[in-house]
Amino acid sequence: MALDRNTAPNDLNAFWMPFTSNRQFKKNPRMFVGAKDMHYTTADGRQVLDGTAGLWCCNAGHCRPLITEAISRQAAEMDYAPAFQMGHPSAFELANRLVDIAPAGMEHVFYCNSGSEAVDTALKIAIAYHRVRGEGTRTRLIGRERGYHGVGFGGISVGGIVNNRKYFGALLNGVDHLPHTHLPAQNAFVKGQPEHGAYLAEELERIVALHGPETIAAVIVEPMAGSTGVLMPPKGYLEKLREISSKHGILLIFDEVITGFGRLGAPFASQFFNVTPDMITCAKGLTNGVIPMGAVLTTAGVHDAFMQGPEQAIELFHGYTYSGNPIASAAGIATLQTYKQERLFERAAELAPYWEEAIHSLAGKPHVIDIRNMGLIGAVELQPIPGEPTKRAFNAFLKAYEKGILIRTTGDIIAMSPPLIISKPEIDTLIGTLGEVLDSLD
Ligand code: PMP
After folding, report:
1. How far does residue 227's CA lie from ligand 1's centre (Å)?
2. Domains defined for the chain, CATH in brackets
3. Rounded to whole angstroms, how far apart are CA atoms 117 and 123?
């Protein structure tokens, strides 16, 4: 069955949509058929302002010529090369460019195809790292409540979003969770980093004491927790995690799948917060969301631990058919060029104060119980309807779409993360329209 480009298709049954209320959607589909810069075009010809950079990924906006041209050029020149025991230039060039913008000390890049794969790759590298160094007892992993690390079994094991875990069985053994840092009583409506909550990092000491440091491989956190509703790290919190993990020989992994590539106004959140982990996971903005690609960045210390034994030996038994795929690599190079040429990370930093004032102007709107922001990301938390959690925010999402803005919701929290090319008038439109939506909510 051919789907008409301009009208809503009449058979939506076969596609089981991810993280979607399929029955609701299929009764009343929302279909995008085009995108350019800050806007999507709907099947019925309306323009929708992208307040979420797709799914936190199209940081340079949509259909950027440098990126689309690089993809078609690479597709025509060489579509695919084996990822194992063979190389091709663009994967190496992209790795070098990534290292150039990464925090000092991050010197190597391992490719995969998504954020979820980046997380599972980093967790596997962490466990294997200790083993190749003769510390094979270090297998425990520590995540955090409300953490989102994708949907692989490793990622949902260290993750802490209840619905993403509870249907899927026993998950990985030997995982502990730090407490989350959402402290609304102390931190509600704070702009930027909250003052209260650094002490929650001390919980890592308690977990270490409970099991013994010689059993623990790694701690993984999002430096700023995105998918759970945009939670900023309290001042001093990440520094404390770094201090405790270093003290005990535990690897610290920052999951920067959302915060990577300028979201906070620096290439990575690690630089923004000035805390350097041992590994960084990234994806999304790596290719501007255009082609699936993820990566793990590691220090020389982590990488070099594997570079031993006979030279022909494979050092790490891990990888994907599409690791460093030529077309994804070409997209990645062109994306980093676009960010650089247009100074988009600096632009995000320059726009951040304007964004902060704009989003906090929604304080006092009906049902709003908290507003949080940092860089070009923000969240508006709504009072849930008793007995019907998520309904109010979902209704806001539907109304926003009707009014021509794309927002995202998680639980009763509205999250926004526009492309870094957004202009001040577009910020006004986004926030002004969201204000009207909030005024109209039951
Ligand atoms: N980690 C984090 C912090 C994320 O926000 C996401 C996706 N939102 C993922 C991992 C998973 O990425 P993907 O959907 O590409 O697998």
Report:
1. 8
2. 22-60+344-439 (3.90.1150.10), 68-341 (3.40.640.10)
3. 10
